[in-house]
Every structure is written in C-alpha cells, then in structure tokens.
Amino acid sequence: MSKALFETKNNDTIVGNEAYFKGTLTTKGSVLVDGRVEGSIFEAKAVNIGKNGKVTGDINCESCCISGEVHGNITALESVELLTGCRIDGDIKTKRMLMEEGSLFNGHCSMGQTGSGAAAVKPVQTVEESNK
C-alpha cells in the first residue's frame, strides 16, 4: 500500500486547508481533504485526509489514506491506511488495513470479502509486519 494515494488529474477534488464543505460529495476521482467536510464522501477512487483534514460523515471509496480525523464509518473496497497522528471514530470495512503506531482507532473493523465465496478474514497488519 502507498501513502501517496492522491494523484493530480482533472477529475480530482481538493478541499483546501481553509475550506469547509457541507453536504454529500460524490465523485469518481480522487479526493484530498486538508480542510473540513461535514457530510459523506461517496464513490471516490481514493480518499486522502491530510493532517489538518477533518471529515464528519461516512466515506465510501476504493482506497483511503488518513492522517487527520474521521468521525464516521469507512468502507473501502481495497485498502485503508491509518497514519501516525490520525484519529478515527467509527467502523471500518475493507480488504486490507495498515495501522501505524500513534494512530487512534475507536470502532469495529471488518476485513475480507463479503457475499458468496467470502474469503477468510485477514488479521490487522502492523507496520513492523508490513516492512518484512
């Protein structure tokens, strides 16, 4: 997994450091949040919450990388990365998860595929284990 999920393209959405967005944000591209979002983020390819970023609402995406705060549930089809200094208050559902030391996660985590032919749930991988 990569810490640099955000790629600069024409379809990307940026909520800057001093910006505030209220409502539902639906996008097929990547989202970078360095400001505040009060509402949900849906259908995004990659969501990156910067150190100053704060989301109060649910996130539904392919991959998510968090350095800031999320107060809501996260559903990521591929992966979630919780970086040092982040705070998550909510449940996480994903295939893969990386949680760095110093990240704070309050909630439940469900990993693996759902539906018919469900794969076995994989344990949470520590940073030390992922570097081996």
Walkthrough of the structure:
With 132 residues, the chain is mainly β. It has one domain. It is built from one helix and 16 strands. The strands form two sheets. Strands 1, 3, 4, 6, 8, 10, 12, 13, 15 and 16 form a ten-stranded parallel β-sheet that branches. It has a six-stranded parallel β-sheet with strand order 2-5-7-9-11-14, with no helix packed on it. The chain is globular and about 30 Å long. 31% of the residues are buried. Residues 114-127 have low confidence and may be disordered.
**What order do the SSEs take from the amino end to the carboxyl end, as H and E?**
EEEEEEEEEEEEEEEEH
User: Over all CA atoms, what is the radius of gyration?
Assistant: 14 Å
Number of strands: 16
**Helical content band:** under 10%
Q: State the distance separating the first and last CA atoms.
A: 14 Å
Shape field: globular
Strand content: over 45%
Unreliable parts: 114-127
**Structure annotation, total helices:** 1
Strand count, sense and barrel status of the largest sheet are:
10 strands, parallel
Topology:
Elements: E1 13-15, E2 20-22, E3 25-26, E4 31-33, E5 36-38, E6 41-49, E7 54-56, E8 59-66, E9 69-71, E10 74-82, E11 87-89, E12 92-94, E13 96-99, E14 104-106, E15 109-111, E16 125-126, H1 127-130
Parallel strand pairs: 1-4, 2-5, 3-6, 4-6, 5-7, 6-8, 7-9, 8-10, 9-11, 10-12, 10-13, 11-14, 12-15, 13-16
Short description:
With 132 residues, the protein is mainly beta. 3% of the residues lie in helices and 48% in strands.
